[in-house]
């Protein structure tokens, strides 16, 4: 987000109206990135759980599955809240 603002600040002909257009887009992009990171970690823990269960490590598999489920639920909740509030969260 800050890279785009820095990029926009280099141009003197950028008006406050132009910035008003870009800021909501940048905030929405930031929120989507956060949700994508949560989904990525959920997938990583799910893969760890699958691999651990294949090798017979039941405790690690169960713990990784629990982390994956928690992260997936949190990511879905954040995605729904973000969609409802249109990126104002």
TrEMBL record:
Protein's UniProt keywords contain Nucleotide-binding: no
InterPro entries, sorted: DUF1328
Keywords: Cell membrane, Membrane, Transmembrane, Transmembrane helix
Key word Cell membrane present: yes
Endpoints of the signal sequence: none
Pfam families per record: DUF1328 (PF07043)
Transmembrane segments: 37-61, 67-85
GO cellular component: plasma membrane
Coiled-coil annotated residue ranges, if any: none
Sequence similarity: Belongs to the UPF0391 family.
HAMAP family, sorted: UPF0391 (MF_01361)
Name of the molecule in the record: UPF0391 membrane protein OSH00_13315
């Amino acid at each position: 987000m800050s890279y785009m603002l820095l990029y926009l600040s280099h141009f003197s002909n950028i008006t406050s109206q132009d910035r008003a257009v870009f800021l909501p887009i940048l905030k929405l992009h930031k929120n989507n990135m956060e949700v994508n990171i949560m989904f990525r970690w959920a997938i990583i823990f799910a893969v760890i759980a699958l691999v651990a269960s294949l090798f017979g490590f039941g405790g690690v598999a169960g713990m990784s599955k629990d982390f994956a489920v928690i992260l997936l639920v949190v990511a879905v909740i954040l995605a729904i809240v973000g969609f409802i509030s249109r990126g104002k969260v």
